[in-house]
Structures are given as structure tokens and as C-alpha cells.
Amino acid sequence: MTVLPHAAFETTRIGVGCAHLTQGISCRYDNRIIHAALDAGARHFDVAPQYGLGTAEALLGRALRGRRNQVTIVSKVGIPRPEVPRAMLQVRAVAAPLRWLIRQSGLLPPRRAATRDFSLSNVRASVRDSLRDLQTDHLDALLLHMVTLDEISDELLDHLDRLRQAGTVGAIGLATTRAETARILGAFPRVFDVAQHGWSVFDPVPVMDDGNALLVTHGALRGAFHSLSARIRRDSGLREQLSEATGDDLGDRRLLAALMVGAAVAANPHGIVLVASRFPQRLCANIAAAQDDRIVLGGRRLAAALLEERAIGTPRP
User: Fold this and answer.
1) Alpha carbon 116 to chain centroid distance?
2) DSSP β-ladder status, 194-198 and 214-218
3) Quick check: pTM over 0.85?
4) Cβ atoms of 217 and 237 closer than 8 Å
């Protein structure tokens, strides 16, 4: 367990990223994903206004109805909620598996950077709408989504602090790139309660704590899993090297995924690691991996072996 700053109770070291949740014909299925995560032991949920084409917060709020006092919920501000016709939501739900396969193939162009708006009028409206859709009177944390140092003003910080003092939000924090997180924490020491950025076994140890901020990482699998599993299939020597280091056969893709999640937990022992999946069984496996001390130890060894490999000159994928 870990403590989210200013929260009324402890939460789990493993959290669920809710970017995949989308209203439409898959709504009941997505409800089952949240309930499966709860049954697996996760109690921390991370969402944002634009997730699921603007519908993820409402879906999460309904799925957690009656259990609000058992979970911590984090949402964000800065990227406006899109207005999407219901018909598009239905089409998106049907096409989701095909879209995922095409994206993994690299045939789709990179996603465009989302428009950001950290004006006080947008922040006020965004928080109001998030509370409504999540069916709650407070957020356990509110994060500035993909914010840059230049977008943070004293006026914005004053408003966030008032939200925190009023109890509308518990913690305030950042959800941006690793580099921008370092810049902001350096410029505003001991201002933010939470720092959230991506991390996988291909990255340096995620030490972003300014002495105050709780670290949250995401992306332990995502593209990193496909890159590493492909390298292991091509390079039997690498497979043997990593299998020897971890004590497990990393030709088993499910075990490799588990160890990569374990590595994220080992690299962030006092914070929270987010996992996400469209498939309940896979999500529950990742949650279980994060709670298995043997897997976490193996993940630590995997990350160390990959770090040593890079140190002797093997190019990073």
C-alpha cells in the first residue's frame, strides 16, 4: 500500500489507467474491466476528460458507484474534453481491435499533440464536469496534463491551491513528460504533490522526486513490451542472457510482461505504477504481477541486466 498525499486512506501501489474506457456498445464490457481490476486488488484509478473520446470519466463513475470510499481517483486538466457524436463512439468501439493492430504495425501516422488550455475558466469548467461525470464531490488528485513550464502561472497555482484547501481536490500534480517534469519540479520545488510520467525497462531509474512529490509511472509495457519480445525472438543470446539474469525463461511472453511490470514496481518502490489493458484477463495478470514479490525481484534483475547491456554498447531498441 502507499499514501497519496492528502488522501483520507491508503491506496494500492498498482493503479489502473483508464484511457481505453469508452461509452458505446462496449460499455458493459468496460464495466467488467473495472470490476475485474477491483477484484484483483487495484484501488487506484487514473482518468482524464479526453479519455475515451470524452466518455471515460462517466463510465468510470458508474462502474465505481457505491465504492467511492474504497478507491482513489485521479483526473486531469489542460486537454479539453472532445465533443463526439454517439454514432462515432459506436464505430470506434467496433473498430478498436483493428485500430490497435494497425497502430502496432506502425502504419498509422503519429498522433497529433493535443491542444492544451490551462486558463482558469477552462480549469474551473473541467473540474466541475469531472466531478459530475465521476459522481463524486472530490478528486484525490488533479494533474496538469502534458503541461510545460511556460504554461504554469502564479494565478494557476493559486487557483489549484484554493481547490486543495477547499477539499475539492486532495493533491495537485503533473502528468507530463519526464524532461518537463524535471524542469517544473526544479522551478517550483515542494509545490506539487504528485509527479507522473512514463517509464519502462529501457529508461533510467525514475528518480523525479523533489523531496515532496509522490512518483507515479505508466507505460511499463506499451511499445516497450513489443520491442523487447521481438528482440528476444530474434536474438537467442539475449534471451539466454536475460533468462539467466532473472532465473526465468523469457521466451514466455506472459512471463516477460509480468517481469516488465515488476520492474516498474521495483524502480518506484514508494509510488504508484499504472497498468492498462482492453482485456480483463490481461489487466488482472498485470495487477497480480505487481503484487508478487518474486516477480518484482525478477523485474529488478531484468532492468539491471538491460542497463548493463546498454552500458557495454548494445543499441537501445
Assistant:
1) 19
2) parallel
3) yes
4) no
